[in-house]
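Why ATP synthase subunit a? Reviewers of the renewal asked for a concrete example.
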Amino acid sequence: MAGGSSIDVLGQFELHPVLGGLGDALRFSQSPLYMIVAVCLVLAFLYFGMRPAAVVPGRFQAAAEVCYEFIRNMAVDTIGPEGAAFFPFIFTLFFFILAGNYLGLLPFSFTFTSHIAVTLALAVMVFLLTVIVSLKVQGFRFFAHFMPAGASMALAPLLIPIEILSFLSRPVSLSIRLFANMVAGHVMFEIFASFVIMLAGFGVVGDVFAIGPIVINMALVALELLVGVLQAYVFAILTCIYLREAVAH
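Here is what the prediction returned.
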């Protein structure tokens, strides 16, 4: 309790219509709004970063070029030469998730990557792409992956369902990993912030003890900055690994 009212740590994840009556009519919540903001920020970063096209790049252009080279090298090194074809998709996926993770750290903002519907949609998109690429490149040989090489055919009734279940669990693990990390971080923010509010009601002594939760929240911000980029990287590198398996003969 704080000031006679309870603190709802999960209330920050609730969706509410924005843009007034128009948002209510269109069911347009803060989640798609911040998705649009994330896309605009990434596009602005790339446009203004690459616009100078200087031989000796400035800081902004150098940052854009480093991001470009980092994702391209990751795609090509992980997938192989075919990775260049998937580079735009990997690049978009990485920076869309990264922008969503970091936007949620701003005051009064919203983390759309903390919603399982968003992360699952991204994971299913990756899953469907890998299946389509697998069928296009490997044809019916794709189904041979569900029977491990060298295994006895007598074990097929056991091994094939296990392999299929493992394959179908990919979008689930991808989506839950990102969703859970984002939710956990923001719940921790809210919990320690509520401690500060509660301790503030105990006068000078409470103010002194409130320093602890404030320091912890500052450390959590640094941790979330790291987790935000790590989760975007993990999502992108796993996508590269799945695409590598799809294009492998």
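Residues 24-247 form one domain. This is the kind of structural detail the renewal will allow us to pursue systematically.
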